[in-house]
Amino acid sequence: MSTRLYTLPIDQTRWSIPGVGATTVLDWNYDEGRDRLLALYEKGKSRQWNAIDRLDWSLGIDRANPLGMPDSYVPIAGSAVWNKLGEKEKGTVRLHLDAWRFSQFLHGEQGALVCAAKIVQTVPDLDSKLYAATQVVDEARHVEVYSRYLQEKLQLAYPINGHLKTLLDQAISDSRWDFTYLAMQVIIEGLALAAFGTIRDLGTDPLGQAINAYVMEDEARHVAFGRLALREYYQGLTQRERDERENFVVVACYLMQDRFLAREVWEHLDLGTAECVEYVRASPFVQQYQKRLFTRLVPTIKDIGLWGPRLRLAFTHLGVIDLGDVDLDVLGRSDDDVAAEMDLLRAARGADIRRVIADVQT
Questions:
Q1: CB contact set of 341 (below 8 Å; sequence gap of 6+)
Q2: In this structure, how many other beta carbons lie within 10 angstroms of the beta carbon of residue 45?
Q3: Are 301 and 227 in contact (CB under 8 A)?
Q4: How many CB atoms lie within 10 A of CB 105?
Q5: Phi–psi pair at 47, nearest 5 degrees
Q6: How high is the mean pLDDT of the chain?
Q7: Residues 140-169: what's their mean pLDDT?
Q8: Of 125, 135, 180, 309, which shows the fewest CB atoms inside 10 Å?
Q9: Is 27 helix (H, G, I), strand (E, B) or coil?
Q10: What are phi and psi of 255, to 5 degrees?
Q11: Is 63 exposed, middle or buried (0-12, 13-18, 19+ CB in 10 A)?
């Protein structure tokens, strides 16, 4: 319904309700919204999927290497600690690392579920509310998927990492809607996309690959949502407001970099935490992996207009400044293509199984 039909002036069609920690905003302006955001909303509706139907949960896993990753994926591979371990102990390390990673994915997805619901509540524009509502459903599905994988396949889980918890605290507790976007849509989900992609592209376990490919297909839309909403809003910031947000990004990036040290795993397995962390920090593979984690984040930050001197200096120090020119639209289309390929592979496996059953019966 168009607000042009209202008897009240259009500036009286938004209602804010103060609350504890956040203000709920209702927008009575039902005129058509921003075309690209509404197109993303349509895509979000059409790409909904059911984890029970789309994933083959009957597949087993190798508990000594659940995701079928190469040993170079183990952060301490090549260290004195790793070289002293027997094959059984190395299998235990791989299992715990994958459980730790998937646990953090799970905790992050629950945080994203809460943040998406908060965005529906607090963002002032109706088109943003509509898309955020589709994201709430996406994040609920991701929580379901990672929780089921941990419980049924790995049968092992880790508590939330302290660095991730700190960032989630800030994303949820800050009353400004754009900080929720910035922390969750841009930083946490931007980094998570790269972590998912590593498993999707390097793993050989079909279930682990498929889970992350399908989640990535959703998350790429979520990051695009954050880009569209914040790019426009940040054009109107004062320099002080811009500096505050850029400082937040700098601190968050260093927090997230340290999150991937996997300190909790080395502590739990009593492998010598200090020695393991020291090796991980200096590992060329880990440094390359951490750089890959920023593949989506850096160009998104640049695209929304947070590209001040301190932020550029931090990205230079992190060795990721060159990622600012990565084409995010190309990456998003690639995520869609890989997910579609996973669907074809599953269909082919199903056809093979049905053919074998038919041969046996005849």
A1: none
A2: 13
A3: no
A4: 23
A5: -100, 15
A6: 88
A7: 95
A8: 309
A9: strand
A10: -60, -45
A11: middle
Q: How far apart are CA 191 and CA 50, in angstroms?
A: 25
30-35: list long-range contacts, CB under 8 Å, 24+ apart.
Answer: 30/1, 30/2, 30/3, 30/126, 31/2, 31/3, 31/4, 33/125, 33/126, 33/127, 33/128, 33/130, 34/125, 34/127, 34/228, 34/232
Taken in order 214, 216, 219, 223, the sign of the CA dihedral is: negative
Tell me the fold of 32-361. Ribonucleotide Reductase, subunit A (1.10.620)
User: Where in the chain are the domains?
Assistant: 32-361
Q: What is the 3-state secondary structure (H, E, C) of 286-300?
A: HHHHHHHHCCCHHHH
317: tokens are 């120090």
Instruction: State yes or no: pLDDT of 57 exceeds 50.
Output: yes
- Name beta bridge partners: 110: none
**Measured distance CA(291)–CA(289) in Å, rounded:** 5
